[in-house]
Design a protein that fits this description.
Blueprint (H helix, E strand, L loop, with lengths): L5 E5 L2 E7 L4 E7 L5 E5 L3 H11 L4 H14 L6 H22 L4 H24 L1
Antiparallel strand pairs: 1-2, 2-3, 3-4
Amino acid sequence: MSKKNIIARVGNFEITKDGGSEHDYLRIKSVSGHWGVTYRDDNEMYGKIMAMVRDKEQAKHLELYVLHIYYTTNIVIDEQFALDFIIALEAMRDRMAKAQGEPTEEEEAEAIKEAEAFTMINDQLSMIN
């Protein structure tokens, strides 16, 4: 892979952006080339990683993310680790929800309207099948 595609270097990892005929790809790989992960542009993580690459204040977050996926894809976890990880994920979800604040009455009304429309469509589709 040519060096011109490297958009970031995080520790011993390089992030490259490559274009394909239908999609663009972000590839995170070890400098040695023995490990890597790829995200297509229609994957939510593609946009999140691109945002971290562009924002220099997110450099530490990006480094921790890359290290996390590297380690978790190269170890076999035990039950206690899995449970601890789920607890940590739930705590993060709660922090993120708290940071977003409470929805306004208008946002809640719109969400209810969307849910009702979705339910109606599902009901109609189940009648067809």
